[in-house]
Please model this.
Amino acid sequence: MPGERSQRFKLGLFVVAGTAVLILTLYIMGTRKDMFARSITISADFREVNGLRTGNNVRYSGINVGTVDAIDIVNDTTVRVRLNIRMDAAGHIRDNALANVGTDGLMGNKLVSIMPGTGEGDPIVDGSVLRSAPGLDTDAMMRTLQRTNDNLLSITEDLRQLSERLNDPNNLVGMLTDTTMGDVWRNAVHQLQAASGNARALTDGVNTLVTDAQQGRGAIGLLLTDQGTEEDVRRILMDLRTAADTLGLAIGRIDRFAQGLNNDRGLAHALTQDTALAGDVRHMMGRLDTTTVLLNEDLRALQRNWLLRKYFKEKEKGRR
Amino acid sequence: MNRAAPYLGPMVSTTGYRDLIEEAGDMARFTGRFFREVLRPRYEWEELLRQAFINGYRSLPLVAVTAFIMGLVLTVQSRPTLERFGAESMLPAMVAISVVREIGPVITALICAGKIGSSMGAELGSMKVTEQIDAMEVSGTNPFKYLVVTRVVSTTLMVPVLVVLADAIAIWASYIGVNFKDTVSWPLFHQQVFDSLIFSDLLPAFFKSFFFGFAIGIVGCYKGFHTERGTEGVGRASHSAVVVASLMIFMLDLVAVQITDILGLN
Amino acid sequence: MEHATESRTDIAVEQEEVVVRIRGLCKAFGSHEVLRGFDLDLLRGENLMVLGKSGSGKSVLIKCIIGLLRPDAGHIDVLGQDMLALRHDALDRMRMRIGFLFQSNALYDSMTVRQNLEFPMRRHWSVMDANERKARIMKALEDVGLAHTADLMPSELSGGMAKRVGLARTLIMRPEIVLYDEPTTGLDPITGREIVELILQLQRQYNTSSILISHDLNVAKLAANRVVVLHEGRAHAQGTYDELLRAKDPVVRRFFMAL
Ligand SMILES: Nc1ncnc2c1ncn2[C@@H]1O[C@H](COP(=O)(O)OP(=O)(O)OP(=O)(O)O)[C@@H](O)[C@H]1O
Ligand SMILES: [Mg+2]
Model:
């Protein structure tokens, strides 16, 4: 019957279409998961793998090069992760490379990231074991960042008050002649000491941050796959560096200045003997001001970023 | 026992009341009989192809339209939430995963339960009450083989095909949905979809759709075959086929989730 | 008609071969006992009529014979074989030798008339080629005078036509025994009579034995060699139409009172 023939044709078409879609999908997924490509197996030991599972991606310098094949607990402090690495990528990875468990974005899948190690190494072979690098603790980093910024703000505030007084010639003369000068100066010295203390804390913080970020060089890239966020963070780190350097200089000067104030010859001496200082302080004020503005902008940008929003929200709640 | 045996079921209980457990038992027996008959030779290829055409090909338009709308709506509805997290770029991945893992199979199966289950219940039910099934039996054709086995096999094989096509259509619709507010090229969309999909998204969902198809066929045929006399019974068979098949789909889905979880395929 | 009846009685008497033997048949639905020890013998070439009022279990009886219902007790031998012991293929092969005309015709309403007639031949497709099948279908339709309806759907047929198609389908495999379930019920008297004449004519043509079930005395008068009255689940009385017409038994009298 012709009707029956066309029915069979349509049915055939229907089944073939469905099967084709399925097979094509499986094939595409297969090539992506390297099911059909040749690969070698290496492993890496971690203290913990943070929810990594078999099948997760392995990246080398941000490129997918393989998948996690198996995860075994070796002993109470070591988890061994077996990785399938695509043959063509394996040639570029050296055995001194560092492996690291990261996240594809903050909400994404876990993945293993391999970063080039320092110095010479041989290409990995089947069975190579990679060392692992400590991961990046985002929360700790953000806390330091926030603290550093607070420090910076209070320094700038202290210095601004001081420089206002220094800048006003009337005030300066007033200060010199005023009988209450003692109080005023004690105040100023106090501010300066606070500033210098804060500045030291700030430099420490910045140092931690920068080392953290350097250690997690790969990790920060992984953590912040979002281009915008990564740029934000990199800029803020750079600005913090500048601020810290400037402050390093400033602190030396301020220390000396403060010491000058404290000795018997007093302010008048300090001002007249070390006129360069006043200029320096003013100059540094200008630089610090610019940096602070920049940093504030950076921080605000960071706060807008959804990845870090949770952190700032909690902070705000804590404040209230 | 001879073939007449299953006919005794509904006749014996003239009291009219058959509680749920009894019905479940009957359905299990019916399923057991299916497995016995499906393997014994004399295969009704003709009828199997006809049923595959009716249950598969003829269901495609309905399934396709539903899948399209589903993909589109899911995309448009998910966007605001993802936007709030600044993760619009995850839209294709999210839609693809939810369609492939859950929504595609379940919605397709429910559509089929409605369309195929009801027509099976009604068709076999009216054949039952007008003695057509008995007529087949006395003309030397095993009606269970001819009517039930072909239908159940056809839905078991066709629902997965429909699910695969529905998934594809829904994802394509999602591509259109993404481009309502964004411009994402097809290669990029394709990339994002396949970056997120893994075998354990697709395969368990695909396998469970066989069970969905099987449940639709078995329930539809069971209800039709066990229609109590009268045209009112036909209506009841038809609608309870839909209700029971839909419930079975959800229960199977629950079981499938547990199994994939136990097997570590999640 | 008279002549036909007499000649058939002669054949039956000559051969005395029992093609259907039923002993002590019991069938109950729940607590409702429909058959309670029914006995019956059908001789080769005989037209046996089972007379009983509506709901007395006539349909149940012939459904037991063909194996659509499984009796609770009793024996059914058809053509020398124990029907209750047969299963699967053996049962199907046996059923090919028995024709069954349903009370409701039971035409497959999703198939054309042609496909309806083709359906019983499915088992024989391997031995019967397409031409032979086609020829048989046309012959069967011609026999019932409906050659022009081959491509109609059952829903397009009138009640009488549907009955004829049902008859053609029942007889298409040339069964040796035919069970007719109320062939005239629901038809006007003229059509009913035509159907009965058709049954007799086909019967002569293919030399079948049959059990006719009815509460219609016209059928008994026209077609039956012998009449069995089914009452309260048993074969209450039997004899030729004329014998029963003269019987004194009150149950039997009640059937004939309507005349
Ligand atoms: N499948 C069944 N389930 C329950 N009871 C049934 C079933 N089939 C028949 N019966 C009962 O058996 C009795 C006899 O039914 P049957 O169909 O044999 O009557 P009948 O003699 O053929 O009547 P009619 O002349 O109206 O066709 C009825 O009382 C009916 O209720
Ligand atoms: Mg009846």
